[in-house]
Amino acid sequence: MKFPKVTVVGAGFVGAGCAQRLLEKQLANVVLVDVVDSLPQGKALDMMESAPIEKFQTSIVGTNSYEETKNSDIVIITAGLARKPGMSRDDLQAKNAEIVGGIVTEVSSRSPQAILIIVTNPLDVMTYLAWKKSGFDHKRVIGMAGVLDSARYAYFLSLELKCVPSDVEAVVLGGHGDLMVPAPEFSTFKGKPVTQLISKEKIEAINQRTRDGGIEIVNLLKTGSAYYAPSSSAVAMAEAILKDSGRVLPCCVYLTGQYGIKDTYCGVPVSLGKEGVKKVVELKLSAESAAQLKRSTEHVREHCAKLNL
What we know:
This protein has helices spanning 13-24, 39-48, 51-54, 93-110, 123-134, 146-161, 200-211, 213-221, 228-242, 287-305; strands at residues 5-9, 29-33, 60-63, 74-77, 115-118, 141-143, 168-169, 172-173, 181-182, 188-189, 192-193, 248-256, 262-273, 276-280. The chain is of the alpha/beta class. It has two domains: 5-143, NAD(P)-binding Rossmann-like Domain (Rossmann fold, 3-Layer(aba) Sandwich); 146-305, Lactate dehydrogenase/glycoside hydrolase, family 4, C-terminal (L-2-Hydroxyisocaproate Dehydrogenase, Chain A, domain 2), CATH 3.90.110.10.
């Protein structure tokens, strides 16, 4: 059976998690790339030794070179420095811009038709950088943030509702950081808005925990950052693209006037398919959410300007 080809750049916890999920879901053959000698090769071998147990027919190759990435359908970029306690996403920008810029140059020249999924923080700025560096149509350069933030929001809401997390549909908009915009008016439990089920005060507390979701895990781990949910989120996006499903997921995408926002990347619901972004879904936001989204976007725009691209 012929499978699509997905390159994952970065063989750390998030990248290896993406590779494992892609294999076990039988979504694609994987090329796992990392600069650390033998690391991707070792992880790839370990994963392939699980194939007789997990029964997947897909395969993975680990490499320190970009040559094996040629003609990838999707490239997921996870490489970069992770946040440490006391470090904001913005603190990471200069170093990770250098790392991501180099990666994009390597992969875009070898896979000019690929779709790029960016996971490296600060997410919105790195996605903008990848778009500029690749020269790709903006519909093929997408950031993974909203899926993760919305999943965290759904989980925290489910704790308050005392329900199964998968019964909650949650929406988080805006930048992947302190100014993200949880949207309770579009978040539901079995189709019923959570605003009818949870007090305004408790919703605001959950909103804040969602904004702090990443750093809460950083502080608990002390020596790393989240990787189970981020890898799951990136693969959900890849699956929608590879299957051309049109599934609507909140992603960081380039806006051309939607939500009154132009010429910047921002987290909003989009339909994903084989061409990348099929359509931006415009929600009728409350005045409060719309103002928060504008503020979040301006913050992203300010930091993109620091790249001097």
